[in-house]
Design goal:
This protein is mostly helical and 174 residues long. The protein has nine helices and no strands. 27% of the residues are buried.
Length: 174
């Protein structure tokens, strides 16, 4: 039987993959009050929204924002919750693979992109109207809250270069 000490000192086979980058900053440790407030926002944003839709929103915004940590986390959480690999893989091209999503999900994805990018400085009326046609006002507020929170998390993750790959599904239960 191999001891822990032997295992820790066992020569490793070189990895064919690039080296993992270290995080730039332990944000939660350095600004715990803000981090706690973000967790509170996360809990509030997730409380009354469909969990599947919530994960789709998180994944799509994280794709746009190139937040590898959030992509890792939310893809794993979505898979653990029963989401299909196909729907997750197709999410970056949802306009071309509309048939994988419901009309409500499509409206939420369009709104997610509009709020995340804000290229023109506003959310187009037609995107908002489409979302409003599929969600009542309370639900629409919940979708907007979910989009806002994941965008904030993405900005923290990308700036601090939070390392993806180590997240265990469900580790941050909402």
């Amino acid at each position: 039987m191999t001891t822990i000490a032997q295992e820790l000192h066992r020569p490793r086979t070189p990895s064919p993959y690039a080296a993992e980058h270290p995080p730039r900053l332990a944000f939660a440790e350095q600004h715990p009050e803000f981090y706690k407030a973000m967790v509170g926002l996360e809990i509030a944003a997730s409380r009354h929204i469909d969990p599947t839709l919530y994960e789709l929103i998180k994944i799509r915004a994280s794709q746009i924002n190139n937040c590898a940590f959030c992509l890792d986390m939310h893809s794993k959480d979505a898979l653990a919750a029963g989401e299909s690999v196909q729907r997750i893989v197709q999410l970056s091209a949802w306009r071309e693979s509309r048939h994988f999503y419901t009309e409500r999900e499509l409206a939420a994805l369009a709104l997610t992109e509009a709020v995340t990018v804000l290229t023109d400085g506003f959310v187009p009326d037609e995107v908002y109207a489409q979302a409003a046609a599929h969600f009542d006002e309370a639900e629409l507020a919940q979708v907007i809250g979910a989009i806002t929170v994941i965008n904030a998390w993405n900005r923290i993750g990308v700036t601090t270069r939070t390392t993806p790959g180590h997240y265990t599904p469900g580790a941050y239960k909402r």
